[in-house]
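tool_call predict_complex ligand=shikimate-3-phosphate
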Amino acid sequence: MATARNIILAGFMGSGKTTVGKILAQRLGWKFLDTDRLIEERSGAPVAEIFKQYGEAAFRDMETSLARELALFENCVIATGGGFMVRPENRDSAAKGGEIILLVASPMEIWHRVGQSRHRPLLQVEDPLARIQELLRARQPAYDAIAWQIQTDGRPATAIAEEIVEKLKV
Ligand code: S3P
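tool_result ok
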């Protein structure tokens, strides 16, 4: 596999992007970035507040403008928000910025990991598991468009990071 300028981790909420991403960045001596944190820094508000004040569409537009910038980054491991790769335009932009890797987890695993999360606006519903299943179904075509996919259920983050390093040969 050709060397990538950046590694862009995609996947549903709770798929392990941040945990794996931080290990991977340390392993490679690269910088770790998170698109949610970058958006929060720029807008001066937490993601939940952006959703509340401006609506989800405004947040998605912020993700799209950030996606266009990814090609300017170098030697970064970038964890993206769970909905980041839903717009085809964002996937195209991200592909210009580096190697996109999708982390996959089952609905139950996701529910165990983030079902009780208070800072994820899309999960503030009576039945988070049903919402997770519904969102996963809706996003499946977008996630399926990503060629490199890694199953994470029951696997330590270190093993996943190592698998990526070996395949990338960076
Ligand atoms: C979202 C996932 C979140 C964050 C926002 C919306 C989504 O990021 O971007 O709450 O649409 O799946 P994480 O995947 O890091 O939780």
